[in-house]
Design a protein that fits this description.
With 136 residues, this protein is mainly α. 82% of the residues lie in helices and 0% in strands. The protein has four helices and no strands.
Length: 136
């Protein structure tokens, strides 16, 4: 025997299917809202990061504005400091101090330069003093 559903039974089944589709559509809409909100959050984070970077750059520019003029000044100051240190080392060596004593005065006591620079400067002083004729 064949079973044929009645019109009422078919309508009930269609209503069930329709209800399940509505539930599915509402879940999809909720997920879309969540996705949009996550994208908004990501955008907000990116904007905040960009603002922080911009503020840090502004702070750096305020603290250390570099112009070619200031670079030249610092270079000149370094050269003057180097010349003063070397002249002081030369004077000490002319007074009869040994290299170890000069090292103690310049590097350890006054802390004008570091060890490597000291020996580099001392080498330059010795080369220059050997070239100049001595009058005694």
């Amino acid at each position: 025997m064949w079973f044929f559903p009645t019109k009422k039974e078919v309508k009930k089944e269609f209503e069930k299917i329709k209800g399940s589709f509505k539930k599915r559509d509402s879940k999809i809409d909720d997920l879309k809202k969540e996705i949009v909100s996550k994208k908004e959050i990501e955008l907000m984070i990116k904007e905040a990061v960009l603002d922080l970077k911009a503020s840090q750059l502004n702070k750096l520019r305020e603290v250390n504005p570099r112009t070619p003029r200031t670079k030249r000044r610092t270079k000149v100051n370094k050269l003057l400091d180097r010349a003063e240190i070397m002249s002081e080392m030369l004077n000490l060596s002319k007074k009869g101090y040994s290299t170890g004593e000069i090292y103690n005065i310049i590097v350890e006591e006054k802390q004008l330069i570091k060890k490597t620079c000291f020996f580099k400067y001392m080498k330059l002083i010795r080369e220059n003093s050997a070239r100049t004729p001595r009058t005694t």
